[in-house]
From TrEMBL:
Keyword tags: Membrane, Transmembrane, Transmembrane helix
Gene3D superfamilies the UniProt entry points to: MFS general substrate transporter like domains (1.20.1250.20)
Protein's name according to its UniProt entry: MFS transporter
Listed transmembrane segments: 21-43, 49-71, 78-96, 102-125, 137-161, 167-186, 218-243, 255-277, 289-308, 314-333, 345-369, 375-394
Keyword Phosphoprotein among UniProt keywords: no
Amino acid sequence: MPTTDPKQRTFRNELWRSLPAGVLDTLTSTFGMLIAVRVFHLGDMAKSIFLSATSSGFMVSLFVVPLLLHARSTIARTAAKVQMLGGLFMALAAAFPHEPWVFIGGLSVGLFCFSMQIPLLTQIYRLNYPATERGRLFAIAGSLRAVAAVAFGFFGGWLIGLDLENYRWLLWAFAAAGFMSGLWTYGLPATRWDIDEDAPSGLWSSLRWIKIDRDFRTLLISWMMMGIGNLVAACLFVEYLANPRHGINLPGRDVAWITGVIPVIFRALCSYPWGLIYDKVGLFTVRTILNLIFAAGILTFYLGHGVVAWSIGMALWGIANAGGNVTWGLWVTKLAPKQAVAEYMSVHTFLTGLRGLVAPYLAFAAIGVMSFQTLSILCGIAIIAASAFITVRARGSDDETRRRLGPRERL
């Protein structure tokens, strides 16, 4: 008998969708850059284009919501079609595996499509998941997604370890994952928005919430400070270990293990606990703790020496990333009116994209004038400063802010 309850149907489809999503995570975290460096020997500009593709999609997501409102389309099917389009472009890269600019263009546009539809999924979570279980349900799917990423990370590392030319099969796997993700998204409940006909609907209309909502504005500033530091450091994980000109030049299998498998193992182990914490602990507190763990991981990775230090750094970063994925994907559901979640999220993803677009270029420019170690210290300072900023705001919070961003129930 088919599942008709929106919560159960959404959860079931999200569990299945987490499998291809985990495969795609390895593209952005490890294999895309590894292929760019080891197979095509691409320059900094080409690598920056690839690394900024997801961020470009985040920025365009600001305009997806008002366009969808005008189209009166259903949320899930629109998101699914965008994902399938991304899979098509990834297939283009796989069909011409020896053309470096087709590789960069196809994968970059594919990742662009996947990131631009994220606010639509967040709106679905807000409508179909109860507030008291949202973090837990989201985290369970996130844990399975991380497990899938670990498994594919092992497989992909083993495959290219046998013969680097096997990267062609990885490209086809990424394309197939894109299509499968779209199919499971298409099967989500076909929810329509109960919109306010009098609400602004221009392409930039979502930005009005920054002015209206002080708590939203405060957290956006903190996310920007933290995100610049974290993204600049994360852009260079593979570059630091894989590129011979930096003096380490680890084998591809070792790079895939350290940067693509270890952090995802810890993300898989820690996603569910962070989901429970998200449902029960105040958002300001959770965000501050996560920032400190991110900073510790980055500093350990770049300031340490040898495989053990690099692995510990990536483990800490993976622990923080587990909680970061939950809070990044759901925090607007604690602030936004029910039907405005996608608008809030589109602003958040737009600003995430803005910093993500700048971060790769900033990262590669920075290592041209300073060491990785100096850059990691600057990144750590930015992340810690973000924690200090929201801590000050949290201590001065009024009753309304504490209601919106505080715990839903005591531990």
